[in-house]
Design goal:
The strands form 2 sheets. Strands 1, 3, 4, 5, 6, 7, 9, 10 and 11 form a 9-stranded mixed sheet that branches. Strands 2-8 form a two-stranded antiparallel sheet. The protein contains 4 helices and 11 strands. Bound molecules: NADP nicotinamide-adenine-dinucleotide phosphate. NADP nicotinamide-adenine-dinucleotide phosphate (NAP) binds next to strand 1, strand 2, strand 3, helix 2 and helix 4.
Length: 164
């Protein structure tokens, strides 16, 4: 499984249940990596998406404890075991963890690669993830040139779990 996230300089990822910034090139990067793949998200992230529907052109797995949960284009899973069972049928390269903070923080160390859009700004987040730079199990394997959109400069950074 891989993870994809956009984080500000304090590792903030959200505010008031939504994203911190609208970055069109980052949205394109997200689509290019996840279309045609399975994505895994928490119920709150699903509810932040347009129309509270799963993303098109992807198989959407939504983790929730609610046994009655239903949403368009989504497959609900209710426990971690149910989730691992569901995604074990895919090549791990084709499964993407897309949020939110609860899922990133619990499951990032089960991911092979972490695709982080690092925004060089403090965007006043109320939701944060682990600082991946401080996790000795991961190392940066690529970092793009900076991109600036809507007044925010950011880079596409990829971390990989160290061998062994
Ligand atoms: N910057 C980014 O790239 C990015 C990406 C995604 C999301 N976000 C942001 O992150 C924020 C949402 O994150 P969040 O941490 O509040 O919520 P979340 O992780 O999206 O969802 C949390 C929910 O997932 C379910 N869940 C979590 N662990 C579970 C488990 N072990 N078993 C069963 N269900 C489980 C629960 O749903 P129930 O309460 O239904 O049981 C829980 O309330 C929003 O601001 C969103 O915009 C940012």
């Amino acid at each position: 499984m891989n993870l994809i996230v956009a984080a500000d300089k304090k590792w903030g990822i959200g505010k008031d249940g939504g994203l911190l910034a609208h970055l069109p090139a980052d949205m394109k990067y997200f689509r290019e990596h996840t279309e045609g793949k399975a994505v895994v998200m928490g119920r709150k992230t699903l509810e932040s998406l347009p129309g509270k529907k799963g993303l098109p052109k992807r198989v959407n797995y939504v983790l929730t404890k609610n046994p009655d949960f239903k949403a368009e284009r989504c497959i609900a899973v209710h426990t971690e075991d149910e989730l691992w069972d569901a995604i074990s049928r895919y090549d791990p390269e084709n499964v993407w963890l897309i949020g939110g903070a609860t899922l990133y923080n619990w499951f990032y160390n089960m991911c092979d690669r972490l695709y982080v859009t690092k925004m060089d700004a403090d965007l006043g987040a109320d939701t944060f993830i682990t600082n991946f730079d401080e996790d000795p199990d991961f190392e940066i394997i690529s970092e793009s040139e900076p991109v600036t959109e809507n007044g925010i400069t950011y880079r596409f950074v990829v971390y990989e779990k160290k061998a062994g």
